[in-house]
Design a protein that fits this description.
By secondary structure, this protein is of the alpha/beta class. Helices cover 53% and strands 10% of the residues. It is built from 18 helices and 12 strands. α3 packs across α9. 44% of the residues are buried.
Length: 532
Amino acid sequence: MRIVRFIGGLLAGLVALALAAALFVYWFDFATTSVAEAGGGALAYAFLWLAFGANLLWWTVVGLLRLGEGSVRAVAGGRSRARKRGGVTAGATSERVLVGAGAPGATAAVGAGPATADPAGGEVAETAPDGSEPGDVAPAGGAVVPAEGEGADGPRDVSIAVIIPAHNEEPVIGGAIDSALRLFDRWDVYVVSDSSKDATADIAARTGVNVLELLTNRGKAGALEAVIEEFALTERYDGVLILDADTELDPGYVEGAKRQLRDPDVAAVAGFVVSEWKPRERTFAGRLISAYRDRLYFMLQYFMRFGQTWRRSSTAFIVPGFASVYRSSALREIEVNPKGLVIEDFNMTFELQRKRLGRISMRPDTRAYSQDPFTLRDYAKQVGRWTLGFWQTIRRHGVWPSAFWLFLAPYLVEVVLVSAVLLLTSALGLFVLVGAVGGEPVMSIPYYGEGVAAVTAFLPPAAIAVGLFVPDYALTCVLATVRRRPSYLLYGLFFLPMRLIDAYLALRMIPRAWTADSDGRWSSPVRVSNRA
């Protein structure tokens, strides 16, 4: 049966890849030749821009540079180790990688070398040339090389506290705690129940972890602030991991986070989000949301944030709040719960950048699995909340002279322009489609026929359909191959409407961010137990 599944998956992947190649060739020829010959040369470039985006392409190039630097360093390190092996006695060998919180002697042995997740989300490969930063690779069979700025007083484990904020998370809180307890001692796990009305606090208490129950709903940021102060976490631990109640940690998460934290310049380790894929537990809409999110996360993390978190760029604007680690010394300087914000993670990231508390690190070895919304209504509410929080953070912090804003500003401009153009183009396409379907009765409406003629003269219906849909679907075919999920070929037919929802919310929340304050209080979406 495994052989049958393997062959079936391989064939489906080959079909999806061939389809993607054919669609890209067809669309590129249409956009750059057919449309241009019809007098729409600028329109052809607009379709290229809508499909990929200038920022995504730019950071993809930066990510490749990071990958190339890591490859060169791995080759150079291998040659250096080969030269040194002759001078190291058998008794002096070590297979440790030192991991520390930046203080002298704050190091720990955690394994034989760095690991990187493959793009398909499979098993990790040791010592892969994935753009690792200096000091990421320990000599295999040689002496331990501490990271720059670390002491050599001997190994000491990096202490990390786990905070799980929760509000009415009865179905999922147990799964999040279980995943944490597989990697941490129970006395290092802290659940803060933000005035939950269900059994969230009781379930947490039965596991033996620390539980703080708030009597008033303060919101996630307020709950984080309360538990950090109540247990003096930033004084007692080297780092603090914030874990959402609907998220489960990958077994290699802690090792990956500590590996990155040994660099004393790292103030925060951004978690690498993976959409939980359990299609049997979801309706068609739920599977569509998970598949769409999986594609979005894949593109943003591998093609954008990987480049943004290179030590030579260090311009990431989000440390995701679902499963990320902050160094305690940096967290003490962050205002976690300012007034007027609906979410905390964008604000905490901007605080890191503005106060220059250190750089943000992200690598695929800190994976965590997040549960996406099950309904389109919950999806829209979640995306709206995230988008509102982003624009509120822009409003709160404003602009300051920095490389961070040098790269953030073009991103903001592109988000607004792409959203507006995408919505406008889709509206024009719908306008023309209504006329084509309605026929003479609709076209005879005063000024309607003239309007359709004017639109089609500039923007032919075929250009709208091919220019917008084909590249979007071709990207889905590529992901279906990489993720080995042929069902994405079906769900990908509906990804363009999902993009329209995102575009609408991106624009809708801009005026709200400047006209209304939020109290940060939350209401959880529909949840399904993540326990097996």
